[in-house]
Write a structure and sequence with these properties.
Chains A, B: Its EC number is 2.6.1.42. Two copies of one chain form a homodimer. Chain A has helices at about 60-65, 90-100, 110-120, 200, 205-215, 260-270, 280-290, 330-340, and strands at about 5, 30-40, 40-50, 55, 70, 75, 85, 135-145, 155-165, 175-180, 220, 230-235, 235-240, 245-250, 275-280, 295-300, 305-315, 315-320, 350-355. The first copy, chain A, is of the alpha+beta class and about 350 residues long. In chain A, strands 1, 2, 3, 5, 6, 7, 8, 9 and 19 form a nine-stranded mixed beta sheet that branches. The model of chain A has no long low-confidence stretch (mean pLDDT about 95). The complex binds pyridoxal-5'-phosphate (2 copies).
Chain lengths: ~350, ~350
């Protein structure tokens, strides 16, 4: 149980205007959570304070050696005014998995949840309510030792910032076009691919720029060893419906274990669909597209929730998925997941957690 | 040509005491160089200012997506009081190669060199002169957009900080023990391994901790695809003398093209040694150790210059290299490279650049 210190802003910002469509990740609320770590002392000084700048020495290790981790989850306002988090414990578990992989000290799971609730509660008024909007929650940890040389830091800063957001992709629920990358590699088994750390994202930028130039909004990565098995999209896991079966790459150590991925697998099984977590080669995909058995493709992620995929391109082959529109399962998943998140439909799995 | 603005510190720190042995990367000088970038405007406001904290929004992209790069080179004081840089243009070229790979705007090479010279000149008095010491120069760039979402930043901060340093490894020129890693992977072809960016270093921490626990000071990485070919050490390239021939892994896209590596290759060739840049499997190495043809092993890097390797361990096999002492070529390379760096011996390649 954290003994959180509170300092309220004396200078609140205006809430975003209700009629302006919210972008993703550009506006931040009035407060943030912060907590420090020192070797020997552990995590200390948990606090909810006004949103403010971080001041670090230029030698702070985070600027040089990439020892940083983050998470992403969302809070929703229900029609009857309650505030719900969606499966926060999955993010917290994953955060500690990332921490272990990159040698950052873990945070007690209950303390972590308490921290999220504390800052979300403080800025509850910032949770937007228009369809497709929510409050994005960004916990992150950075290495703060003032030291040049490669080793884990002995001091860290943990923060949680909040951003009222709209759709992650400008397309919204409209199908996106995805580029299957055959030159650059994001991650490889034995590496940091399953951790949520900056190094995986910086590795993805060049391919993303290439895809954008070709008119594609996201990159679908192949494995780094054989460069033939499907991994995941820049910020989403990927699903295919092939011949009636829902197929998604299995967790192999180089892809992020998505919370939305897990939710979608559970929902599909709950609906009686057959679901396979296994290796899928790009050849299998091209074949399935050719013979018509590739019925639907969608990405899953906290930011985009469900993102139908209308086109895939691999080298010179362009695949249009069915009519390029929103597939039936994608739509049903989107409606169900967001329905649960907003407390509008039954939550059979107990996924939502109320902030009181 | 940069129009550099100068602001001198009014509060100079005491120089490190001459008799205290310098550690690596813990003390910083009185000034730093800084310059900003904005899309549409380019790099602007080049300045040499007092060493000071950086103040960033918690949403600054560098804290989340790892878009950061760095370089490392050194300045030396000659016996007649001149200040020399060692092959700065190689670092500057590599910096721009890193920049291209991770979508950071390039910096004009002449401007870059001018910036290094300007700040080194300002803090020239900080260059230590004891044997084995030097002024370590750390240029780095961080992404500063206040934005959550994966894309290249549109604003950056470029800085150069300076640190008077002693030996990088506590061992100094004494042979280090190196652990050949068979579980974790640092980088893979198609990834960011040849770029000098934080993501590669964070990926190395867990293996480094494991090696430390076993009494080894550094990790030698294998390739990410077959996990069988030698790549490089945590912060050094690696060389072997096998049967009279100097062998080093060829630049394959996943290892850093070291400046010291290049210098060592040139020196060895200059001395008439046969040098091969090629793939070397761990099996070949074990064989060579067994039949006695593995004559010498050393690492090369700006921080350590030349670091003789006395022991290698791969899984359950421990290899002692010859008598575990400093090899003949290692010693000659160390003497020659540092001799050139300090302006004490002839510089046949024109590697040193004077700061005037
Ligand atoms: C690389 C990557 N894959 C997948 C996901 C989807 O994970 P989640 O559903 O937990 O948001 C994300 C985003 O969080 C991601 O960054
Ligand atoms: C991963 C890695 N390999 C090799 C080197 C050696 O390169 P250089 O000789 O340019 O210092 C370094 C250090 O710079 C490094 O970080």
């Amino acid at each position: 149980m954290l003994n959180i210190r509170y300092e309220k802003t004396t200078n609140p910002k205006p809430l975003p205007e209700k009629d302006n469509p919210l972008k993703f990740g550009t506006i931040f609320t009035d407060h943030m959570f912060a907590m420090n770590y020192e070797e020997g002392k552990g995590w200390f000084d948990p606090r909810v304070v006004p949103y403010q700048k971080i001041s670090l020495e230029p030698s702070a290790m985070v600027f040089h050696y990439g020892q940083e981790m983050f998470e992403g989850l969302k809070a929703y306002k229900t029609d009857d005014g309650r505030t719900l988090l969606f499966r926060p414990n999955k993010n917290i578990e994953r955060a500690n998995r990332t921490n272990r992989r990159i040698c950052i000290p873990e945070i007690d799971e209950e303390d972590f949840l308490q921290a999220i609730k504390a800052v979300v509660k403080m800025d509850e008024a910032w949770i937007p309510t228009k369809p497709g909007t929510s409050l994005y929650i960004r916990p992150f940890i950075i290495a703060t030792d003032e030291f040049l040389g490669v080793r884990p830091s002995s001091t860290y800063l943990f923060m949680i910032i909040l951003s009222p957001v709209g759709a992650y992709y400008p397309e919204g629920l409209n199908p996106v076009k995805i580029w299957i990358e055959d030159e650059y590699v994001r991650a490889v088994r034995g590496g940091i691919g399953e951790a949520k750390t900056g190094g995986n994202y910086v590795a993805s930028l060049a391919a993303q720029m290439k895809a954008h130039e070709e008119g594609y909004s996201q990159v679908l990565w192949l494995d780094g060893v054989e460069r033939k098995y499907i991994e995941e999209v820049g910020a989403m896991n990927i699903f295919f419906k092939i011949n009636g079966t829902v197929v998604t790459p299995k967790l192999n150590g180089s892809i992020l274990p998505g919370v939305t991925r897990d939710s979608v697998i559970n929902l599909c099984k709950h609906w009686g669909l057959s679901v396979e977590e296994r290796r899928i080669s790009v050849d299998e995909l091209l074949e399935a597209a050719k013979d018509g058995s590739l019925e639907e493709v969608w990405g899953t992620g906290t930011a985009a929730v469900i993102s139908p995929v209308g086109h895939l391109r691999f080298e010179d082959t362009v695949l249009q998925i069915k009519d390029g529109g929103i597939g039936e399962i994608s739509q049903k998943l989107y409606d169900t997941v967001t329905g649960i998140q907003l407390g509008r439909i039954e939550d059979p799995f107990g996924w939502t957690v109320e902030v009181q």
